[in-house]
Amino acid sequence: MKKLISAILVVSVMVLFSSFVSAEMKDTYEFKGGSMGKITFNHKAHQDLLKDCKICHHKDEAGKENACGTCHTKDSKVKAKDAFHNNCQKCHKEMKKGPTGCKDCHKK
Length: 108
Ligand code: HEC
Ligand code: HEC
Ligand code: HEC
Ligand code: HEC
Known about the structure:
Layout: H1 2-21, E1 28-31, E2 38-42, H2 43-50, H3 80-95, H4 102-105, E3 106-107
Antiparallel strand pairs: 1-2, 2-3
Bound molecules: heme C (4 copies).
C-alpha cells in the first residue's frame, strides 16, 4: 500500500512539473491578420518539414521556444507584421513552395 501511494505521488509530481516546464504548443495556430483576414498556420506540418526550430524561433534556446509576439509587437523595432512576412512569405518565395500571394495566406 505504501509503495502504491508513493508511486502515485511520484507520478503526480512528474505531471505537475512537466506542465510547468513545457510551454503550450499547438499543432495549428490561427492569426487574426487584421482587415486582410485570418491566417491558418500548420505548426506541426512545418516542424516535420523543416526540422530546425531555429529557422523561426531564432532567438530561443532549444526547448524554450516563445511566441513571436513576446518580442514582435505593433511597436517593436521589427514589427510583428514584418517579422511574420519576412519569415513566412520570404521562405515560401525562396523555396518556391507554400503560399506567397496575399489571399493565399489571408482568408476572410
Ligand atoms: C516555420 C516556422 C516555425 C518552425 C519551423 C517552428 N515553429 Fe514553433 N511556432 C511558430 C509560430 C509562428 C508559433 C506561434 C507563435 C505565436 O503565437 O506568436 C510557434 C509556437 C511555438 C510554441 C508555443 C510558444 C508559446 O509560448 O505559445 C512552441 C513551444 C514552439 N513553437 C516550439 C517549436 C519547436 C520545438 C520547433 C521545432 C521542432 C518549432 N517550434 C518549429 C513557428 C515555427
Ligand atoms: C526574444 C525575442 C524575439 C522572439 C521570441 C522572436 N524574435 Fe524575431 N527578432 C527579434 C529581434 C530583436 C530582431 C531584430 C534583429 C535581430 O536582432 O536579430 C528580430 C528580427 C526578426 C526578423 C528579421 C526582420 C527583418 O527585418 O528582416 C524576422 C523575420 C523575425 N524576427 C521573425 C520572428 C518569428 C517568426 C518569430 C517567432 C517564431 C520571432 N521572430 C521571435 C526578437 C525576437
Ligand atoms: C523556412 C521555410 C518556411 C517558413 C519559415 C514558413 N513556411 Fe509555410 N511552407 C513552407 C513549405 C516548403 C510549404 C509547402 C509544403 C508542401 O507543399 O508540402 C509551406 C506551406 C505553407 C502553407 C500551405 C500548406 C499548409 O500547411 O496549410 C501555409 C498556409 C503556410 N505554409 C503558412 C506559413 C506561415 C503563416 C508561416 C509563418 C508563420 C510559414 N508558413 C513559414 C515553408 C516555410
Ligand atoms: C505566408 C503567409 C502570408 C502572406 C503570403 C501574406 N501575409 Fe500578411 N500576414 C501573415 C501573418 C502570419 C501575419 C500576422 C498576423 C497577426 O499577427 O494577426 C500577417 C499580417 C498582415 C497584416 C497586419 C495585420 C494586423 O492587423 O496586424 C497586414 C495588413 C497584412 N498581413 C497584409 C498582407 C498583404 C497586403 C499581403 C500580400 C502582399 C500579405 N499580407 C501576404 C501572413 C501572410
